[in-house]
Design a protein that fits this description.
heterodimer; A: mainly alpha; B: 573 residues; two-stranded antiparallel ribbon; 22 helices; globular
């Protein structure tokens, strides 16, 4: 990787991170807390939707967010030709 | 011996033998093996170990009760979101980069990236957080032994100490990691089986997360009749701003806890560190989405079975747990029946400890004795796995960051290992003592540990990775300011000390978020006019961001870069 490729790699990483963190904040602080009262007028599996986001939905979304991150980072690494990972046992 | 005790004994003996066998099979002889399992743990195993490490006696035993009884449903969501959401931050912002940097401990990263005085602050913070936490685990071990096997709390804790001694002291991180994989299996099976059984009993649906929907309306209706605010209604117990503050303190605190972060050093590579975070949160979510269901089922059963019951007619499970002092009735109005009101209502006649919700749930629901025994083994697995992870942080902080880096830099590897093991033995004794004689504040302080983690480590680690020009003095000042204000506020407002209302009604558990903002502000401000990190250090931080091999990182890990090039001659070196 040369310097410009590195910058591009880092920019793409930051963009992915920002999108995922916005969703992270939206489901927990948004749906679970700030908008919980209007959402509670709807329901899922018989559970008021705002309450569901606070106790179930946000956790499920968190798992999905990390899964997407892992998957996209793998693709990003591969697109820069890094498919094999050395076993980086860097410990002093 | 009752049937329950027999089954409990069987499960405890089987699971403990398994832990000891694994520890013996994976004993280690190098510092890298002892501290970070030689960085060679596959991602699913590492994820299960992180999950077991993370889910303590508090998660297993107390969480469901905390959510459903003391927080009356919705307000308890702060714990559910807070203790899982931090993993997103860890996976995206910290784990891959810290793994790439490649050190043994969190204070090690802080000391290397910043300065030796920053390392000392980090060591102190890591030790305080870990000790507070580990005492709670030992108390949990004592509780399980006392209730299920009828042995004294002290004997129970001593048995727990001996087991931990075997696998943690001999096996170090490697022994602990593989034992934790087994412990995760035991604890999750023990948690899910009764939940499924109760869900089928109450709703006919075998998935507790969906069965939850069937009981919520009934719990709301029961509570309405009793004059308790509805279970699903928002902001009846905690205001909106406080919900946000507490959730944030728990999330950022999770991402800043040293015993969690250190687990990413055990991954094989950066990619494996990312996968470890995914596996860990997946495993954790199994318990964390089940807990609110168990809580609601249990609340329904308790309200349904006990409300309006004549005081003398309490069921057998009630009497068993009343003997352990965890549930009691006080007929305040003297009408001879149990009148249940909100947990904080003076007219409430049923006092129920959060801890019994999970432990007593199988009995409350009338499940057979083997399941009750399994739950006991699960509770022990949760407590022991977390205790061993914390003991390792204590031991590696002292042996690596204090002894090797400060006192005797020429110590041989055998010497360091010996110091690590001696520290761990001492820590086991201290933890056992604190478990047998718990200071009144332990339970409260455990929740506060997250605030301290958020206010001290999270900003320091984040800026250390994402801001090349973050300076040593900035980070040190920020950590001290964040930790200091948070600690002061907590001492000022916590019930047994200051008992003040605080400022703007911010609860002590939510102040960590404010402390974190203070840390960020101070670090950024002080970094503007203090000596910048050296060129080499800035380059090093940049290399952590890119995939693939880096000669600079390899040289840094091997310790072949000169101290002056790394930290310059302006610091305290």
């Amino acid at each position: 990787m040369d310097a410009s490729q590195r910058q591009e790699y880092w920019r793409k990483n930051l963009r992915l991170m920002s999108v995922l963190l916005v969703i992270w904040a939206f489901v927990s602080y948004g749906c679970g807390i700030l908008f919980v009262e209007p959402l509670n007028n709807l329901s899922i599996f018989g559970i008021p939707l705002g309450f569901w986001f606070a106790q179930q939905g946000s956790i499920v979304v968190f798992v999905i967010l990390i899964a997407v991150y892992v998957w996209r980072m793998d693709k990003l690494d591969a697109s820069y030709g890094i498919a094999e990972y050395e076993e980086e046992v860097h410990h002093s | 011996m009752t049937e329950v005790q027999l089954w409990t004994t069987i499960f405890v003996v089987i699971s403990f033998s398994l832990y000891i066998y694994i520890a013996y099979a994976s004993r280690v002889n190098s510092t890298a093996g002892f501290y970070v399992a030689s960085g060679g743990v596959p991602a699913p195993a590492n994820g299960a170990a992180i999950a077991a490490d993370w889910m303590s006696a508090a998660s297993f035993i107390s969480l469901a009760g905390l959510v459903s009884f003391s927080q009356n449903g919705y307000a308890g969501s702060v714990y559910l979101m807070g203790w899982t959401g931090g993993y997103v931050l860890l996976a995206l912002l910290l784990a891959p980069y810290l793994r790439k940097f490649g050190k043994f401990t969190v204070p090690d990263f802080v000391g290397d990236r910043y300065s030796e005085s920053a390392r000392l602050v980090a060591v102190v913070a890591a030790l305080v957080v870990s000790f507070v936490y580990v005492a709670g685990q030992m108390a949990g071990v004592g509780l399980v032994f006392q209730r299920f096997l009828g042995v004294g709390t002290t004997v129970g804790i001593i048995i727990g100490m001996i087991i931990v001694f075997f696998y943690a002291v001999l096996g170090g991180m490697k022994g602990i990691t593989y034992t934790q994989v087994a412990q995760f299996t035991v604890l999750i099976v023990a948690y899910i089986i009764p939940a499924v059984a109760i869900s089928i009993n109450l709703t006919g649906i075998p998935v507790p997360q969906i069965g939850l929907g069937q009981v919520l309306a009934e719990v709301d209706a029961l509570q309405n009749d009793l004059g308790i605010p509805e279970y699903t209604a928002a902001f009846t117990q905690t205001s909106m701003p406080n919900m946000v503050l507490i959730t944030a303190a728990l999330m950022f605190g999770t991402a800043g806890l040293p015993h969690v972060i250190v687990r990413f050093y055990t991954a094989k590579s950066v990619r494996a560190a990312r996968f470890s975070a995914l596996w860990a949160l997946f495993f954790i979510s199994l318990l964390y989405t089940t807990a609110p269901a168990i809580g609601a089922f249990s609340k329904f059963n308790v309200l349904d079975q006990l409300s309006g019951l004549p005081v003398g007619d309490t069921p057998a499970w009630f009497n068993n747990w009343a003997q352990a002092g965890l549930i009691s009735v006080n007929d305040i109005n003297g009408n001879g029946v149990i009148d249940i009101a909100g947990a904080t209502d003076a007219a409430n006649e049923l006092i129920i400890n959060n801890d019994i919700v999970v432990l007593a749930t199988p009995e409350i629901a009338g499940l057979p004795a083997p399941i009750v025994g399994l739950v006991a083994a699960g509770g022990l697995a949760a407590a022991l796995s977390t205790a061993s992870g914390l003991l390792l942080v204590i031991s590696s902080s002292v042996a690596n960051d204090v002894y090797y880096k400060k006192i005797n830099p020429h110590a041989s590897e055998q010497n360091q290992l010996l110091v690590g093991r001696i520290t761990m033995v001492a820590a086991i004794f201290a933890a056992g003592y604190l478990g047998i004689n718990p200071p009144g504040f332990v339970a409260q302080v455990v929740a506060l540990a997250f605030g301290l983690g958020a206010a001290s480590f999270f900003p320091t680690l984040l800026l250390g990775i994402f801001w090349k020009k973050c300076t040593a003095m900035g980070a040190t000042a920020g950590m001290i300011a964040g930790l200091g204000t948070t600690l002061a506020y907590q001492i000022w407002t916590i019930d047994i000390y200051g008992n003040s209302d605080g400022i703007w009604g911010i609860p002590e558990t939510g102040f960590g978020t404010v402390g974190m903002i203070i840390n960020f502000a101070v670090t950024i401000a002080v970094s503007q006019f203090t000596p910048k990190p050296t060129e080499t250090m800035q380059e090093l931080v940049e290399h952590v961001r890119y995939p693939g091999h880096s000669d600079l990182l390899a040289a840094h890990a091997a310790g072949t870069i000169e101290e002056e090039k790394l930290h310059g001659d302006h610091g305290e070196h």
